[in-house]
Prior knowledge:
By secondary structure, chain A is α/β, with parallel strands linked by helices. Chains A, B: This is Gylcosyl hydrolase 115 C-terminal domain-containing protein.
Amino acid sequence: MLLASKSAAAQLMLDEFDWPGVLRAADDLAADFGRVTGVNGTVTLAKHTKPPVTLNASVIYNLTHSNTFARSGAKSTGKGGVIIAGTLGRVPLIDDLVKSKKIDVSEISGKWEAYMWQTVEKPMPGVDEALVLIGSDKRGTIYSLYDVSEQIGVSPWYWFADVPPRTKAAIYTQKNVRIIQGTPSVKYRGFFINDEAPALTGWMNVNYPKGPYGSAFIADFYQHVFELLLRLRANYFWPASWGSMFNVDDPRNQPLADEYGIVMGTSHTEPFMRATNEWTTFGHGPWQWNVNNESIIPFLRYGVERAKPYESIITMAMRGSGDTALSSSIETTELEDIVDTQREILQQVYGNLSVPQMWCLYKEVQAYYNMGMKVADDITLLWADDNWGNVRQLPVGNETERSGGAGVYFHVDYVGDPRNYKWINTVQLEKIWEQMNFAYQRDARDIWIVNVGDIKPEEIPISFFLDLAYDASSISANTVSAWTKQWSSQQWGPDAADDVADVIERLTKLSNLRKFEQVDENLYSVLNYNEADDILAQWQDLAADAQKINGTLPASATASYFEMVLQPALAGANLYDLYISTAKNQMYAIQGRNSANSMAARVLDDFNTDHQYTVDYNTLLNGKWNHMMDQTHIGYLGYWQQPMRQSTPGLHYVQTLERGLAGDMGVSVEASLGVVPGDDQYHPNSGESLVLPPMSPYGASGQRYIEIFNRGVNDFNWNISTDPFVKVSKAAGSISPKPEADSQTRIYITIDWDKCPPGSGMSVLNVSSSRDYGTQYSMPSVMIPYNHTSVPSSFKEGFVEDDAHISMDAAHYTRTAKGSGSGSNAPHYINLPNYGRTASGAMALMPVLAPSLSPRTAPALEYDFYTFTNTSSTKPANVTFYLSPSLNTSPKRPLKYAYAIDDGKPDTAAYVCDNCNDDKTAVESSQYLPAGWETAVGNNAWSSSTNATIPAGQHTLKFWALEPGVVLMKVVVDLGGVRPSYLGPPESRIIGK
Amino acid sequence: MLLASKSAAAQLMLDEFDWPGVLRAADDLAADFGRVTGVNGTVTLAKHTKPPVTLNASVIYNLTHSNTFARSGAKSTGKGGVIIAGTLGRVPLIDDLVKSKKIDVSEISGKWEAYMWQTVEKPMPGVDEALVLIGSDKRGTIYSLYDVSEQIGVSPWYWFADVPPRTKAAIYTQKNVRIIQGTPSVKYRGFFINDEAPALTGWMNVNYPKGPYGSAFIADFYQHVFELLLRLRANYFWPASWGSMFNVDDPRNQPLADEYGIVMGTSHTEPFMRATNEWTTFGHGPWQWNVNNESIIPFLRYGVERAKPYESIITMAMRGSGDTALSSSIETTELEDIVDTQREILQQVYGNLSVPQMWCLYKEVQAYYNMGMKVADDITLLWADDNWGNVRQLPVGNETERSGGAGVYFHVDYVGDPRNYKWINTVQLEKIWEQMNFAYQRDARDIWIVNVGDIKPEEIPISFFLDLAYDASSISANTVSAWTKQWSSQQWGPDAADDVADVIERLTKLSNLRKFEQVDENLYSVLNYNEADDILAQWQDLAADAQKINGTLPASATASYFEMVLQPALAGANLYDLYISTAKNQMYAIQGRNSANSMAARVLDDFNTDHQYTVDYNTLLNGKWNHMMDQTHIGYLGYWQQPMRQSTPGLHYVQTLERGLAGDMGVSVEASLGVVPGDDQYHPNSGESLVLPPMSPYGASGQRYIEIFNRGVNDFNWNISTDPFVKVSKAAGSISPKPEADSQTRIYITIDWDKCPPGSGMSVLNVSSSRDYGTQYSMPSVMIPYNHTSVPSSFKEGFVEDDAHISMDAAHYTRTAKGSGSGSNAPHYINLPNYGRTASGAMALMPVLAPSLSPRTAPALEYDFYTFTNTSSTKPANVTFYLSPSLNTSPKRPLKYAYAIDDGKPDTAAYVCDNCNDDKTAVESSQYLPAGWETAVGNNAWSSSTNATIPAGQHTLKFWALEPGVVLMKVVVDLGGVRPSYLGPPESRIIGK
C-alpha cells in the first residue's frame, strides 16, 4: 500500500478524545512524512458528542503546535494511504475496530506500553485499507506512531543531533502487516540532565529567555527533550536541577511533560518532587531532619500536592544539601523516621500509597541500607553505579521478591571524585551492555535512569542504553557491534553504516581507555613498549578514517556526523597528540634535544587546534549549538573539578643557541632517559654506554630502537658500527641542528638470528660523530643484550617469553571447557568482543545467575606458555591479572578468581575489597567504595597481582572465575623484565597458532 | 726618591746567583713599571766568578722570558731610581749590605717567607740611594718584589682578570722607608684547580696545544697560574687533575713550578705526587691495596722519585679511584698499613722523613681518623670542609701539639652531592672569614688550600682567602667590608671602590642565599610575604647599581669589572627573574590569567638573555676568555650533576582564545592560589569568597593585596566596595584581555585604624565586574579578618605579634651581657655584619676558644616581644632558630644552644646531630655528614624548632649559645600563622626603638 509520496499526503486518522500526547505525536508523524517526502501527512480527528475522559491540557498542547522547528513540509492535494491510530480501551475509533473483530488485540490488551501494527481492509466506511496502530495504553500508542517515524526514515535525533531524514519519493507498507510490540523490558526508562553547565546552560542562555529565577530551562526547551525521550521509547525524566527549578522556572513544564506522556521524577538527592534550589530559594532554616521539621515537612508536602495531577515517581528519603551526604552522625533509624513521615504525607495527599516511590541507594545511602535499614516493600530500590559505570550492588535473595522491585541509576557523564568526565563521550557500549545486562538478569527492571550531563554529546550511549532498556533481549554480547551498525545506518544510511560503526567502535574503545580528563602527559609511556606512539597512531588512523567517511557523506549529513563522530575523533586524537607531544617535549628537554622545542610548538598548535574544534562545533549550522562544546577539558590540576580555564601542561625549552656539554650528537635508547655521551642520573656516572632491553627470537615486535639527535649548533655525520649479525635500519647519516623537528632520527635494530651466536651475549654498537664529544666525553656505544633461545619442538602452541615477561590477552586462551552442570546453565566463558582495554575483548563468566564456584566446579581458561627465565622463591615471578573495574554487586559474594600454574595449588583472590569481610568500617569509609577504587575506575581495570615461582620451561596458567561478574582482560607474567607503562606490555608472541 | 717615570726607567739590581724565581719576579716588576709608566724598568745582574749555589733551571727560565703577554713596555734612555733586591744569605749583593751594616736584617733573618723594604743611602759605589728589598728566603724576596708591583698599581689580577694597571706619570718612594713584613700566618697557602670542565678546559683547548695525552694543561698556561699565586702571596698548588697529568702532559710543568717558587702538591685523592690519570694511563690492575701492591708500590715510588728535586708536600694514604671512597670493607688497620709502607718509601727515596707530608681527612677518611687510626706526628692533618664551606673538624686537645700541625681544605666551587656549584661566584666573604678565622684560632695554620674550580670567576673569594691566609690578623669580623673596599680600590680605583664594594657585598649576600644551581621556581614564595618579588627587587636594584657604576669606569676597566662584578650581577638577576617569572607563569596558569602567557614569554626572554651574558663574557676582549662561561646552570633535574644542556622549567600557556568558565574577571588574594568567582581546590567548593591573611596595626608591611586580572576575551570594568575604614589603592578600573602583560592589576589594602572598630572582625570587600560571571558563578568578594589590637603602655620596647607570628633578626636583640669570666676572654657575642641570610647579619659567640658553657655561664641574647594569641599545650607555639650551617668541629663538643621563654626552664638543643652521641653508624653513613646536612647547606642554615606554650602578653625570649661556633641569624615564634616561604617571615615590627 502506498502510504505517502511527494504528491500524496499520508492520511492519519485519530480520535479527538485520545490522549493529547497521542494526538501530539500524530502531528509529529504527519510532519515526519513531510520531512521524508516533502509533503506533510494530514491528521483527521474522529469527532464525538461526548468525551469519554476529561481533557485539560489544551493550553500546553497549543504551545507544541507553535513549535517552528517541527513543521516544515508542504501541503498536497493528493491523498496517500490511511493510518488509523489510537489507544485501546480509550477511544471509539479503536474500540469499534476491536468490537467489529476487524483486529485481534489480545496480544497487547492490558499490557504496559505495548502496541501493534496491522493492515486492515475496509476498517471503516470509505477506507479500503488502513494501517492500524493500536497502543495498549497512552505510551503504547505514542511509541507505535514514532515507530512509523523511524521506519519511514526519521531518526529520534533529527532535531537534537541534526540527523537528516532519509528522503524518499514514496513510502509503501508491505501487505498483511501484523507486528506485535510487547511490554518494554524495563518499566521506567529515562535520563537525567545533570551538571548542565557550562555547555547546555550556556546554550540555553543564548536560545531561551530566562525565567523569574534566572534559569532558561523552560517549556520551549523541554518540549524537545520530551519528544526525544518518546522517540527513543523512554518514559521517565529527571530534569536539570543544578541551577534550575523544573516546576517553578516555567509553570508549563510539569503539565507539558504529562501531556507528552513523560513520567517525572527528581534526582536521587531531591525528595518529593522538589528541586534543591526550591529549598535554597523558598525554604527556611537548615536542611536538617529533626531540627527543622516544621519547615521541611510542609516543604515536602507541597511537592507531592503539586505533583498529584501528574504521573510521577516520588523520590524518597533525604540526602544533604547539594548532592552531599547527610551529616555523619545520622543513624539508620533517623532515615527510617524520615521515610515513615514521608509515607504518611503520601497517604494523606494521595489517599493511598500506590503512587510509585523510589529510594536511590546512592553513595553513602547504600551503606545505610546494607546496615539493615528497613525499606517498605513497595518502594523501588534504585541501586546506583559508582558514577563510573560500575553497578555497585543488585538485588540478592528475597530482595528480588519485593513488590517495588529494583532499578539502576547509571552514568555516562559525571561531576565529582576522582575526576569529572563531561567533555565528549567516553563510554564503551560493550561496557554498558555488560553491566546493564547483568543488572537486568539480576532483576533490576523497574527503573533505569542514566545521567547524561548536557544530553549532547552523549547521543550514542543514550540511544544504546534506552534501546537496551526497551528490549533487553535484543542485544547480546555478540551483537553490540550489529547494534552500532544498525544505529549508524539510521543516522547516516546503509552505505556508510559499516564504516561509521567501525569508527565508533574504535573511538569509544580508545576513549574508554581512560577518561580524557584523566589523560595527561605522564600516562602512556614514551619510553617503553612504544606505548604512547602506538596509541597515538591508533588515534591518528581513527581520525583519518573518520575524516575520510565525512567526504563520502551528503552535505546534509555532515553536521550530525561532525557532532556525534567526527568531532570526537578529531578532538580526541588532537588531545592525545597534545599530551603525548608534551611527554616527548619533557623527555627531549631532559635529554637536551633540539627537537624539544619543536615538540613544544606542536603542543601549542594542538592547543589551538583544540580550540578550533570547539569553535567548529559551536558555529555549526549557524551556531545552532553555540556553547554546547564549552566544556573545559585541558588543564586539570590533580583536582576533580573542571579547570575554570584551559591551560597546557608544562613545556620545556632547550637552549638551542648553545651546544650541549657533550657535543652536538646525542644517542638515546628505548626504555631509558639516559643519553650518551654525557652524565645523567639515568645511566652510570660518566659512562658512555647505554643498555637496550634484551632481544630474543620471540620478541613481540622483533626490534629495538635507538635515537640519534642533535643537541648542539652544528651539523654532524653519524656512523654506526655493529657486529655482523646485528642489523640497523640505517647505518650512517647526517643531522642538522635545524629545523628542530628534523633534528633527530630513529634507528631500528634487528638481529639476524641465523647468524647470531647461540646462548646469551652482549653486542656493542658504536655510534661515532664527525664532531667532538665536548671537553670531557668520548664516543658513545649501545649495549645489546641478546638471548638466542629456542623453544623445544615438544611445545606445540602457546605464548613464549621475551624480554623477561609474558603478556597474554584473555581471549587468546589455549583451551577451555564448561564447568560442572549441563546445558546453557553450565558455567562457561563468553568473549565480550571489543570490551575493555585489549583488542581481543575480554572473557566473562556466564550465566549471570551461576552460583558461587570453586576451581573444581568452575570452567578453566588455560594458557600454555614457555619460559627461559628461572624464577625462585627469593626472586619470584609476578602474575598480574587485569580485570574489568566491576564491583561486588552481591555483598556476600565478592568477585573472586583462582589461578594456578600447572598443577599447583590454586591461589584465590577476591580482588575488590569492600565486602571481602564484614568490617563495618569498610563501607563507612568516606567514599563508601572499595580500597583502590579511584585507581581502578581511572584505569578501567582492577589489577590483581601475586608472586609465583616458575622454573624455566613449559607451563600452563589456569584461571577460574569463581563468581559471575568476573571479566578477565589480560594476564601478565613478569619474570623480572616488565617496565612501567599504562596498559602493561603488549601481547607476547604466540607460536603454533 | 723618584723611582720611575715615563722618561726614567727604574733600575733593578739583582745578583746573578739569586734564585731564578727571584730574578724572574724582578723581570715581572720591571715589566710592571712599564705597565704603569709606559717605560719598563731595567734589570742589572751583579756578576760573580763562582756561583754560590748550583742553578739548573735555565731552560725553563727561558720559557718565561718568551712570554709575550708579560712584556709590553717601551724602553727609555732616562734612568730612574735604583731598587736592589735579593735573598738574605744567598747572594753577595745583599749579604755585603748586611756585612757593611748598611741595613739591619735581624727582624727577618731566619724567618719563613719574611721580607723587608728599606731606603739605603749609598748602598754601593755609584748609587746615591736605593730602595733595598731583602727576602728572608726565596719567596720572601719574590713577595717583596710583587709587593712593589702592587704598590705602584699592578693588581695580581692584571692578566687573569684584565685589571688595568693604574698608570702614573711618575712613581716616588717616601723618604726613609723601612717596612718589615713578617712570616705569613699560614705556612702553605694555595688553591686547587678542579672540575675544570667545561669552562677552563674549553678555554684551554682553544688557546694551547694539547699534550700527547690530550690535555692542554701545559707550562705555557701554568706560568700564568704560578705568577698569579705568587702575586697573591700564595706558595702552594694542586694542579688540574680531572683530565690531566701535571707531570706527564708537559715535562716542563714541575720544574717550572719549582723555578717560580711554587710548592707542588696533589689533591687529597692523589697520593705521592701522581695524578689519578697516571694510574689510569700507566697503571696495571686494580687500584686496591693488598691486592695489587706489586703494581701500586712502584707506582707510588716513582712519584716521589720524580718529585724529589723539587719542593713538594706529599699527599699520603689512598682513596678509591676517581675521588671516591675506598671499598667499604677497608679497615683503619689497612689504612695504617698503607701509610707505614709509604713512609718506608719516603725514607728510602729521600733518606729521611723531613719532606712535608699531608693527609687529607676528606669525607670518609675523617671517620677513620675519628675511629682511632694512628697518624705519624709529623704528618700534617688536612681537615676538610663539607665541600660547602663548613669546616668539618679541627684540632682538639693535644692534636694542637702535633709537629705536623694541621690545615684546612676549603671549597668555593664544587662538583658533587647534593648539587654542583660552579657557574658564577656564590661565596660570601663574611662566611669565609667566620669559618677560616675559626680554623686559624683553632691552630689549623700549616696548610690552607681552596678548591677554586676553573679559577675564574672565583677571583674575589680567592683573593680574600689568600689574604686571610697570609695575614689572619689583618681582617676581623668588622673589617671584611673594609677589605672589600680596599680590594675594589685596587681593581677599579678609589673613586669607584665604595660603590663597587657595596655591590659586591649585596651580590655575594644574595648569591649566598642559595647556590644558583639549587634555585628553582619553587624556592621563593610568590604567594607569601611578597618574598619572591622582594628578592627579585633586590637583584634588580643590584643589577641597576652595578650597571650604573660601569658607566663611570674608564673603558680600560670595564672588562675586569664585567668579569668579576657586572656579569654576575646581571646574570644572577636575570636567573632570578627567570625562575620567579616561571613561578608566576605557573601560578597564573593555575589561576587562568591571560598574563600567564606573557610571563612565559618573559621566561624565554630571560633564557636568551642568559645566553647573551654568556656570549658577552666569552667574546670579551676579542674572545680572550672564550668558553670560560660555558658552564651550564639552568635545567638541573633533581640530580647533583650539571645538565648536559640548558633547558627551561615547565611553562604553561592558557587558552586566551577562550573565556574562562567564571567570566572575564578573576580576583585572587595574597597567600592563596584560589580565584573567585569559580571553583578550585584552593578555596571551598563553589564559594565565591577568598580570605586574606589577618591584618593588625602591627603588620610588618602594613598592607595586604589582592589582584584583579583578565581571564577572558573581553574588556571589563571592575569596582570595589568596602567598609569605610578599609582603604584600597585603587577602587575602580578597567582591564583588557590584551596585551597580556597589562591584563592584571594589584590593589593594596590598608586599614584606617583610627576608624576601625576595636577588637577582631571581618570586613567584606566586594569586587564587581561589568561583565557576567559565567553560567554558574556570581559576584566575588574578599574577606579581610582584622585584629584591632594594641600593646599596653607598659611594654616599652620589642617585637609585636602580627599575623600570628613574630620574626626577629638575631642582631636586633633587646639586651645582652658578657658571660662569666673577665676581659676579652669572657664569653660574649659579636655581630657578624652582613653575614648569612638576614640583612642585619648574625650573632656569634666569642672567643673561639671559650669553653663549653651553660645557661648559667653563657651570655644571653634577650628578645622582648608581645603576643595577642594565646597558645596552649594542645595548640602550642613553635619557636624556630635559624643558625649558620656550621658543623661540629670538636667531636665531643657539638654545637649547642639553650633558650627559654621568660623564666621558664631552659631548653637545650644540639642541632647538628652527627656527633651528638658516639654512635659509630652516624659517622659511617654514606655521606659521613650529619642528618639533615643536605638541607642545611642548601638553605645555608640549620633550622632548629621546638614547641612552647606562650600565653598572650609580654615576654622575653632568652638565647644562650653554649659552644663557640654557634651563629644565630633569626628567631621565628609561630603562633599559628606562619605560611610557607624560603627565608621565613620578614622581621616583625619593633616598637620603642
